[in-house]
């Protein structure tokens, strides 16, 4: 019951179809899809066909890399082979094929995504915000270039997401579960259960004989995957940035030229505190001006016209800022009027503007000598940025022209750092004393999927203050740790396994006595080993659901038992065995809690909405026509599972 509700909106297919693939695509920096048409999108052999479009292995490979990057946020040591073997590749193919089928079906029905809508989607992506916190097209171009994307690719992906949302949000919103289903489930949430829970801990068992060498070897062989060190990479990188290319200080002539070119900033100027009203036509604007000049306060006249004080307040503002917010004509009129004055109506894009000047604040000119240091510092920053951008471009051009990592390092006089074989999180198993540099995890964002045959790349560190030339020099395949290195751990685990087996026998004997009528505390006391006394347990489903944490296994077991039943349950990590006895079950009644009924209905509606989406996607795929090349998929699976995950 509890796990059912926690599955709401967690369907991997639904999450992909509603556009979260695009979000992950931006966050993880993995390239997105290629174009449509008769040739496989993304390059490589065709592994599936949706309508007339062939899906190329390149697209799926890149999307699998994105999925792996997301999964690594929870498990940094995860490698591509494990991801594929756990079903990650099949999930990736299913998501992408279903998404493309839905998009094709929707376009056939006349659904589109306008350029304006896609512009809005792009502007809403936080990764594209500049220093002011607002969308910056230069930042966008820099980010997508770093992610090896083009703007058309980005727009195509966002347009597809928008079209699918137009289809699927109404589909999911139509889900409505009737009260006849909701009320019984809501009542289950109020059901209360009580009982006793005891534990037979492994550590309470008498020490047995140590594991034999044969047992140690057998355990190592059987659990070899547990002792396997994941794939690692040796990374070579060279840092450069602002501190490695200081420009010459600007001269007096250069500073003076900048001061002259920015006279509007440093010369005498003024700011004004303004109020503004925008009316739909000139007649209304003229009537408003006449009313104010006749003695009515500006605010009162605006309120009579339906405007609040917040609607008309511009506050203190400069001329350029006002022109940008309204128009040059409005700014000219507002800065020509005296303090306390009112402008005549001025036509703008939104209607007719009337501006009231509340106050005028003059700002004195700033002499060159007083701002010389400020200008010099700004010019240094500008020159540094330009020099750094030119250096990055020159390095990338050299790589594109065939220069190797060592060639660039030599020509740019960079200092190389080499890591031991490291995991994607920067750790290096077996390298005693290794401490990853702070920048290494950022560099591994892409390098953890590269091979030794890939060209070096330039990675951005932070907000463009530093860069790194990065190259994978060696890929160390996943390999089992030597038995001698893990032997002590195996002995400890085997000892716990044997102790757990002895604890299980005692727990089962206790459970048998309780089922025969012996009181549970008495059965524990007569177990033959010193055990903690069983504890009373009581809970309701709703309490466990609202705890927002994993429910203790023995408590969850109580909600799958009949009154009077006694069961045995293993504790995690061979820690022992629980003995659980359910005493009473008090049914709940949700009919007196309409809020709980509606909350339960909402969660049911979400789950049902997910089901609607999946069924709709399946129907669209059937109508569009989807075929898969199982042999090509098998070849891609073998390639990725073997570690060959480089993008084409």
Describe this structure in words.
It is a single-pass type II membrane protein. GO terms for molecular function: peptidyl-prolyl cis-trans isomerase activity. It is found in: Cell inner membrane. Keywords: Cell inner membrane, Cell membrane, Chaperone, Isomerase, Membrane, Rotamase, Transmembrane, Transmembrane helix. The longest helix has 33 residues, at 368-400. This protein has 648 residues and is α+β, with helices and mostly antiparallel strands. Helix content is 50%, strand content 17%. It has 4 domains: 2-177 and 603-641, Triger factor/SurA peptide-binding fold; 192-230 and 483-586, no CATH class; 232-242 and 395-476; 269-363, Chitinase A, domain 3, CATH 3.10.50.40. The chain contains 26 helices and 17 strands. Residues 1-10, 20-40 and 643-648 have low confidence and may be disordered. Strand 1 (46-50) and strand 2 (53-56) form a beta hairpin. The strands form 5 sheets. Strands 14-3-16-15 form a 4-stranded antiparallel beta sheet. A 4-stranded antiparallel beta sheet has the order 10-5-12-11. The protein is extended.
Condensed summary:
This protein is an alpha+beta fold. The chain is 50% helix and 17% strand.
Number of domains: 4
Overall radius of gyration: 34 Å
Number of helices: 26
The dominant shape is: extended
Helix content: 40-55%
CATH class of the largest domain: Mainly Alpha
CATH topology of the largest domain: Triger factor/SurA peptide-binding fold
What class do helices, strands and sheet pairing give?
Answer: alpha+beta
Strand order of the largest sheet: 14-3-16-15
- The overall average pLDDT, rounded, is 84
Distance between the termini: 45 Å
- What oligomeric state do these chains adopt? single chain
Low-confidence stretches: 1-10, 20-40, 643-648
CATH architecture of the largest domain: Orthogonal Bundle
**Beta-strand residue fraction:** 15-25%
What does the main sheet amount to?
4 strands, antiparallel
Number of strands: 17
């Amino acid at each position: 019951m509890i796990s059912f509700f926690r599955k709401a909106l967690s369907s991997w297919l639904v999450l992909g179809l509603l556009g979260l693939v695009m979000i992950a695509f931006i966050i993880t920096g993995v390239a997105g899809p290629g174009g449509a048409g008769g040739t496989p999108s993304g390059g490589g052999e065709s592994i599936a066909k949706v309508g007339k479009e062939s899906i190329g292995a390149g697209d799926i490979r890149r999307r699998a890399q994105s999925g792996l990057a997301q999964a690594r946020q929870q498990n940094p040591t995860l490698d591509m082979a494990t991801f594929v073997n756990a079903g990650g590749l099949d999930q990736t193919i299913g998501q992408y094929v279903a998404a493309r089928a839905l998009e094709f079906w929707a376009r056939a029905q006349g659904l589109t995504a306008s350029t304006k809508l896609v512009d809005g989607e792009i502007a809403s992506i936080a990764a594209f915000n500049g220093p002011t916190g607002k969308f910056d097209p230069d930042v966008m171009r820099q980010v997508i270039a770093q992610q090896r994307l083009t703007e058309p690719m980005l727009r195509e992906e966002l347009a597809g997401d928008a079209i699918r949302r137009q289809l699927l949000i109404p589909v999911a919103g139509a889900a409505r579960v009737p009260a006849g289903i909701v009320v019984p489930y809501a009542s289950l949430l109020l059901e209360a259960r009580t009982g006793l829970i005891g534990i037979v801990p492994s550590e309470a068992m008498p020490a047995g004989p140590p594991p034999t060498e044969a047992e140690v070897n057998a355990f190592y062989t059987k659990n070899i995957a547990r002792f396997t060190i994941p794939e690692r990479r040796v990374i070579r990188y060279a840092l450069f940035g602002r501190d490695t290319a200081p420009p010459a200080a600007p001269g007096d002539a250069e500073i003076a030229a900048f001061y002259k070119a920015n006279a509007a900033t440093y010369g005498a100027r003024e700011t004004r505190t303004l109020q503004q009203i925008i009316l739909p036509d000139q007649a209304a604007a003229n009537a408003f001006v006449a009313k104010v000049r006749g003695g009515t306060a500006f605010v009162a006249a605006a309120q009579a016209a339906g405007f609040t004080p917040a609607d008309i307040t511009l506050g203190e503002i400069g001329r350029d800022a006002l022109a940008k917010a309204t128009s040059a004509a409005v700014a000219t009129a507002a800065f020509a009027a005296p303090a306390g004055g009112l402008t005549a109506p001025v036509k703008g894009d939104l209607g007719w503007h009337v501006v009231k000047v509340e106050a005028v604040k003059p700002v004195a000119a700033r002499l060159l000598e007083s701002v010389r240091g400020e200008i010099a510092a700004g010019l240094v920053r500008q020159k540094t940025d330009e020099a750094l951008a030119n250096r990055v471009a020159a390095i990338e051009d050299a790589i594109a022209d065939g220069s190797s990592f060592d060639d660039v390092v030599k020509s740019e006089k960079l200092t190389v750092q080499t890591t031991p074989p490291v995991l994607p999180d920067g750790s290096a198993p077996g390298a005693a004393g290794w401490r990853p540099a702070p920048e290494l995890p950022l560099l591994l964002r892409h390098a953890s999927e590269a091979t030794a045959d890939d060209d070096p790349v330039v990675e951005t560190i932070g907000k463009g203050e530093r860069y790194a030339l990065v190259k994978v020099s060696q890929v160390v395949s996943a390999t089992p740790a030597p038995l001698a290195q893990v032997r002590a751990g195996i002995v400890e685990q085997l000892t716990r396994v044997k102790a757990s087996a002895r604890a299980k026998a005692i727990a089962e004997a206790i459970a048998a006595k309780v089922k025969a009528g012996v009181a549970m505390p008495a059965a524990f006391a007569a177990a033959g080993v010193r055990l903690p006394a069983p504890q009373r347990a009581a809970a309701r489903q709703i309490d466990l659901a609202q705890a927002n944490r994993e429910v203790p296994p023995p408590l969850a077991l109580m909600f799958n038992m009949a009154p009077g039943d006694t069961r045995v349950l293993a504790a995690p990590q061979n820690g022992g065995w629980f003995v659980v006895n359910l005493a009473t079950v008090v049914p709940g009644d949700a009919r007196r809690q309409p809020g709980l009924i509606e909350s339960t209905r909402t969660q049911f509606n979400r789950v049902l909405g997910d089901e609607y989406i999946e069924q709709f996607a399946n129907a669209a795929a059937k109508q569009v026509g989807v075929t898969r090349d199982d042999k090509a998929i098998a070849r891609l699976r073998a390639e990725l599972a073997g570690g060959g995950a480089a993008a084409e």
